[in-house]
Amino acid sequence: MVFVHANGFNARTYRTLLGPLARKARILAPDLRGHGRSTLPAPPGWRRSWRDLRDDIVCLIDTLEGPPIVLAGHSMGAVVALLAAGERPDRVRGVVMLDPVILPRPTALAMSLPLLGRVARRYSLATNALRRRDRFESRAAAMDAYRGRGAFSGWPEAVLCDYAADGFRDAEDGVELACAPGWEASNYAAQGCDPWPVLRSVGRPASIHKAEHNSTCSIAPGQIAGVEVSTVAGGNHFFPLLKPAQTRATLKTALDAA
Q1: How many CA atoms are closer than 13 Å to the CA of 80, on its beta-carbon side?
Q2: Position 156 confidence tier, pLDDT thresholds 50, 70, 90
């Protein structure tokens, strides 16, 4: 399985979720460019889509030997996994999407147009990311600032520690975010990759698991033939981290599938 993390996160954030699965399968969790320990270039500036991230995952798939893989991901990473599966259907035997960022089809089509796509730069997520504090005295200080607040509310301490371990890098005056605010904002605004055609043509078992509260996925059960859609009861957008046992069972089912 290749697991792709969410925007602003890093692969290590999902260690407690994915670690136990390594007893039965080879699990690869790369840091996307501009995140974690990745050294791939991530120049600031607005982009129109996540195709650069898709192509990075495709390059990774091309290096892997053995049988076809399961692609999985969370949020933005779920869509990147789907797009990669569309490029290499012969190398993928299943796709698992955990609360993917999939806009309603009319909106997705509009965002793919160059002029209208610029509207996404005004998304509150993008503008808020640009205002995000990017330096702290230490990882411990960053954790103190995040613990129990905003998007980090309810996070287990182990997950927060893992996020901070690779979510920051050492700087002269402390630590700085590995995912620069400008790059995080660029990802939020890069809504020009319409995933709907790929969903309809991927030709592999595909499942979407939506959060019950504040989901980023607009697809309803039965809306796309061959795509299984379910709702995680009581879950919000961060349910893969807050409900790891349930999410792990979902991933295990995909790994066990013939």
Answers
A1: 31
A2: very high
